[in-house]
Structure formats: C-alpha cells, structure tokens
Amino acid sequence: MRTVAARSRPVDAGAERLGLAIKRAEQVLIAEKTRVLRPFGLTVPQYAAMVAIAATPGISGARAARQCHVTPQTMAVVLAALEAKGLIERQPSDDHAQVLVTRLTRVGHALFRRADAAALAVEERLAAAFSDAELVTLRELLVRAAEAIPAPAAAG
Q1: How many structural domains is the chain composed of?
Q2: Which residue range or ranges hold the HTH marR-type domain (predicted)?
Q3: What is the pLDDT of residue 143?
Q4: Is residue 67 part of a domain?
Q5: For residue 10, is it within any domain?
Q6: Is residue 122 a contact partner of residue 29, using CB atoms and an 8 Å limit?
Q7: CA-CA distance, 77 to 3, in Å (whole number)?
Q8: What residue numbers bound the domain in which 54 lies?
C-alpha cells in the first residue's frame, strides 16, 4: 500500500483549495446526471442503487449501501422508493430470513437500460476531455486522493 508523504510546505493560499476543486467537479457531474435521469423519474442515488442491483442481482441492502457509499438507512429509503415505483423487488434470502435480497423487475430492467445509457453518455463526455493516458492517471490520482485521508477512528 502506498504511503502518503507529508508535504514539506503548506498548500498555496493563492491557489484554489484542492477540496473545492474536487467538490466542484463532483457537483457538475451530479448536476448533469440529475438532469439526464429526470426524464426516467430517477434520482442519482436511485440510479446508483440500480447500478449495484443490476451488477449483483440478489444483493442485500447493506451490501448495496457499501457499494454506493451511503449508510444502510439511506439505502433503505432509496430501495423503498424504487420498490414503490415497481422497479425492484425484495424477498427474504434463502440463506438468512432476516436479509432481504433485491432484484430489478422486468420494468426496472427496461428503465435501467435506458437510464444507464443516458448516464454513461455523461461519463463519456467527461472521459472525452482526456487522453487514454490521462484517464489512467486521473483514475489513479482519484484513488490516491480517496486513500489519502483515512476515516477517523471510531470512538471507544
């Protein structure tokens, strides 16, 4: 695992703060995905949950929450909304009766395919701004950025 070296100098006060630059890029991406998903009646969190469910049919809500980087409580709200729209179905697991497994319905699959194409088109527009080598570097830098700030230790 790569260790992060401490900076020998403070962040340049005249430069844009790194956190703000990352946040602005995220906000632009989310705003555009929100716009293209609206005609499908989906929010970005609902779409993200559908991505996880499509990739792993029978996924639990807890696992979907981990994959989407949200709390289980947030995922429960998202899944309830998708279920109310008839886009997913949840049933008790064959292995653990207390665990609900989630699958896209036929209607959910059809909607997801169309919504996914719209969301992927946004990501393709983003990717087009970079060369293949830059995309590799960008992904590596984003992974490193995510790993650079460890989560605070749980209070004991």
Answers
A1: 1
A2: 15-147
A3: 93
A4: yes
A5: no
A6: yes
A7: 37
A8: 19-145
Residue 49: inside a domain, yes or no? yes
Per-position pLDDT tens, the chain of length 156: 455 555 555 666 667 789 999 999 999 999 999 999 999 999 999 999 999 999 999 999 999 999 999 999 999 999 999 999 999 999 988 777 777 899 999 999 999 999 999 999 999 999 999 999 999 999 999 999 989 987 676 555
The structure tokens 């230790």 sit at: 153
Cβ neighbours for 119, distance < 8 A, ≥ 6 positions apart: 33, 36, 37, 47
| Interatomic CA distance for residues 30 and 84, integer angstroms | 24
DSSP string for residues in 7-72: PSS---TTSPPHHHHHHHHHHHHHHHHHHHHGGGT--HHHHHHHHHHHHSTTEEHHHHHHHHTS-H
User: Euclidean distance between the first and final Cα of the chain, in Å?
Assistant: 26
